[in-house]
Design brief:
The protein is of the alpha+beta class and about 325 residues long. The protein is about 45% helix and about 15% strand. The strands form two sheets. Strands 2-3-4-5-1-8-10-9 form an eight-stranded antiparallel β-sheet. The longest helix is centred in the C-terminal third of the chain and has 28 residues.
Length: about 325
């Protein structure tokens, strides 16, 4: 089963872990623009891909339809910016826990994904893959500044350690600002997950390291891990406070479940808001009509592109909202 349909350590709060290395090859100029330059880079990668292993397959963006590219964005496998490139390609395995973007802002962005709080194990696999690429292709490295990137803020390790967190307890008890203000003082960035088409997202945030220079990969991951554990602790305290008003909380959760399970059409925006409450109910043991796997499926297959991939058809906006309601019922009622 793919990582984004699994539950992991502390996944009641921490939904997934991403480790990303930004890398450039020493024999190429940075920030490639022309189709020809990107093609030469891709050919160099393909020539020696057999030495890398991990079951990686080479796929070009221009060979994908728009729905397929958007489905990769929805799974967090590629960035929205990268998906808009006319050129560029990815290396990806069947499990989709490894996805490497080629020919974007950097020559390579090596990404490893995991469910739950798995920063250290995810880092170990990413370092293993990164070393293979470095040995085979040769990276642009400077003695003083470490790995060289087109973005000055990624110099040094070129590492981004990211945790996606579901914190409805902190949001509902109005404690997010205090927590978020505090962690920014520890070299950690935090942002609410936003989509330009969705104004009111669910209570999902991402934390990541601010600094990559003058600090080791292990130290970066340790710092992010400490902050993630603190947020998990605070979120669970907030949930216990909410549980003191059990009728009020149960009403919110069951109303949300009732709308999801009975609607005839529904927008992605509304699904995310209601699903946040439903996930909270499942994680607290209040709502026993769903399990973790069904919640994960609801998050994935109610998104526009993966919804269309699931049914194997292309839909207009109004049809999408109707089919979204249909797939919710399918997932909820499936034995």
């Amino acid at each position: 089963m793919n990582w984004y349909l699994q539950s992991g350590k502390d996944s009641d709060v921490l939904m997934n872990t991403i480790i990303r290395f930004s890398r450039n090859l020493k024999d190429f100029k940075f920030n490639l623009k022309s189709d020809k330059e990107i093609e030469i880079l891709e050919n160099k990668i393909k020539e020696n891909l057999y030495q890398i292993g991990y079951g990686l397959k080479f796929l070009k963006l221009k060979d994908m339809d728009e729905i397929t590219k958007q489905s990769l964005v929805e799974k967090e496998l590629v960035s929205k910016e990268f998906s808009k490139n006319k050129e560029g390609s990815i290396l990806i395995n069947d499990e989709e826990n490894i996805c490497i973007m080629i020919g974007g802002k950097e020559h390579l962005e090596i990404q490893v994904f995991n469910s739950g709080l798995e920063l250290k194990n995810t880092l170990n696999l990413a370092i293993e893959i990164d070393k293979k690429f470095g040995e085979i292709y040769g990276y642009a490295v400077n003695k003083k500044y470490g790995f060289l990137t087109s973005s000055p803020d990624m110099l040094g390790t070129g590492l981004k350690a990211i945790c996606t967190m579901h914190i409805p307890g902190l949001v509902k008890t109005n404690n997010t600002k205090n927590i978020l203000d505090t962690i920014t003082n520890f070299g950690i960035s935090i942002k609410k997950i936003n989509d330009e088409d969705i104004k009111n997202q669910s209570d999902i945030y991402q934390i990541s390291n601010k600094y990559t220079l003058g600090i080791s990969e292990e130290e970066i991951v340790e710092n992010v891990n400490i902050i993630a554990e603190k947020i998990i602790e605070q979120e669970r305290k907030a949930r216990r406070l909410l549980a003191n008003e059990s009728i009020k909380l149960e009403d919110i959760i069951y109303r949300s479940y009732g709308i999801l399970s009975n609607c005839r059409k529904i927008s992605n925006e509304e699904v995310l808001r209601l699903l946040s409450n439903v996930k909270l109910g499942v994680d607290l043991g209040i709502l026993d009509k769903l399990n973790d796997l069904k919640v994960q499926k609801l998050y994935l297959y109610t998104k526009d592109a993966n919804l269309q991939k699931y049914f194997g058809e292309k839909y207009e906006k109004m049809e999408l909202d109707v089919k979204r309601a249909e797939i919710i019922k399918l997932i909820i009622n499936k034995k």
